[in-house]
Amino acid sequence: MTVLLVFDEGPGRGLGHRRRCAVIAGALRDRGLDCVELPLGGSVDAPIVVVDSYVARADDRSRFRAGRVIALDDLARDLDVAVVIDPAPGASTAPHRRAGRVLAGAGYALVDPAVRALRAVQHDRPDREPTTLLVATGAADREGVGVAMAAALADSELGLAVRLVVGPWGARPAAGRGGRGDVEIVERLDGLAGELARADIVVTAAGVTLLEAMCLGRPTVAVATAVNQRGNLDGVLAAGAALGATPDRVVEAVARLVADPPLRRLLADTASALIDGRGADRVADVIAELAVQVAA
User: Fold this and answer.
1) pLDDT of amino acid 178
2) Which terminus of the chain faces fewer neighbouring Cβ atoms within 10 Å, N or C?
3) Domain of 157?
4) 135 and 91, same structural domain?
5) Can you list the residues of the chain whose pLDDT is less than 50?
6) 155 and 24, same structural domain?
7) d(Cα 80, Cα 94) in Å, to the nearest integer?
């Protein structure tokens, strides 16, 4: 049986939906299921469809004519589908009254298996003096939030080597911007596992990269750059697993981490306990069960 996974991507939408679907597809293939991953287009007709979209509703029967529809949805929409996956930390089943089954909360966070494989790498890193910092604000940061934060951090007195992830639809730093510090540009479309592993501190939008940084136990400052990231951010802050900041206060938050080794260790331990990296396996087990029911 083939599972079709469709997702939003592009300017204003980024790559997060594609990455979440890819993680699920990988876990399903490990269980012997065929998967096809496609950007959201026209109508879909398949036995099982996973929909990860802020633009379309997964329970739109005119668009998704499937035997079973699974919605990857962290907007707390009450969708009439077979399964809702709400992977935001702190998410609950309460908003999803019409779904046949709900998988909600940090236990279902969808993390790249390459990140999970690095969980044991440099476990003592939070205890060392920080020297490197990664800034990541999504593949579609057209407003240049990441550019501005990276420049402010590089120009601060913190003395950190700043690396900025720039996506295909995001703003780029102006050439010859001046200032005291330099920002090294990182362009990666295949995930940030290696970049996160080498960073002592991470500053990130509250999307997929936030969850991956937490899985690796990186002391993290999270910034909500879109309304749809509030669920992730609120859940992470409630768990005490990261610091929150607005873009204009990010230097202050990073300075606090640099000056406080016990805080870095606390955040690292809390974050890695909250996001264990097994969410995709739990989701895939449920979809595999559903596939058996459909085939019968």
Assistant:
1) 44
2) C
3) 114-274
4) no
5) 176-180
6) no
7) 14
